[in-house]
């Protein structure tokens, strides 16, 4: 299965997507939700292939049932998508101020690449911990 990476950002109340590392036409879908963004992406590609992209070998070969979408998020879109995550817990795991993490969440401040990596690592560690949980009834 072919993988297509979509970078997700949140701006002006909308989720925006972009696809990098593709020569030629690069769709930039948007939507109120991640699902709407994905539907918009499929519509954009379909329209492009029917019109100006008739000869574009890359996009003409897209069969959505054979595509695995993967996502990279900016922190604003990440925390909106996964809004159930507790900022205090994450900030404690990383060792950064919770207020600063909230600024990243709202987009009033932006992390350095190093700081974003620390946040990503903490989230992955949390996911690893959760995968070990076993519940009983």
From TrEMBL:
<feature type="domain" description="HTH cro/C1-type">
    <location>
        <begin position="93"/>
        <end position="130"/>
    </location>
</feature>
<dbReference type="InterPro" id="IPR035069">
    <property type="entry name" value="TTHA1013/TTHA0281-like"/>
</dbReference>
<protein>
    <recommendedName>
        <fullName>HTH cro/C1-type domain-containing protein</fullName>
    </recommendedName>
</protein>
<dbReference type="InterPro" id="IPR001387">
    <property type="entry name" value="Cro/C1-type_HTH"/>
</dbReference>
């Amino acid at each position: 299965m072919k993988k297509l990476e979509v970078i997700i950002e949140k701006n002006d109340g909308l989720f925006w997507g972009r696809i990098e590392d593709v020569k030629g036409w690069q769709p930039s879908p948007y939507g109120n939700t991640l699902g709407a963004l994905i539907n918009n992406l499929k519509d954009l590609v379909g329209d492009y292939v029917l019109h100006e992209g008739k000869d574009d070998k890359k996009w003409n070969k897209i069969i959505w049932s054979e595509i695995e979408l993967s996502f990279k998020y900016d922190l604003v879109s990440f925390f909106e998508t996964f809004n159930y995550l507790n900022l205090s817990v994450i900030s404690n795991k990383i060792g950064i101020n919770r207020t600063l993490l909230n600024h990243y969440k709202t987009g009033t401040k932006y992390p350095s690449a190093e700081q974003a990596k620390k946040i990503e690592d903490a989230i992955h560690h949390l996911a690893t911990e959760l995968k070990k949980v076993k519940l009983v009834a």
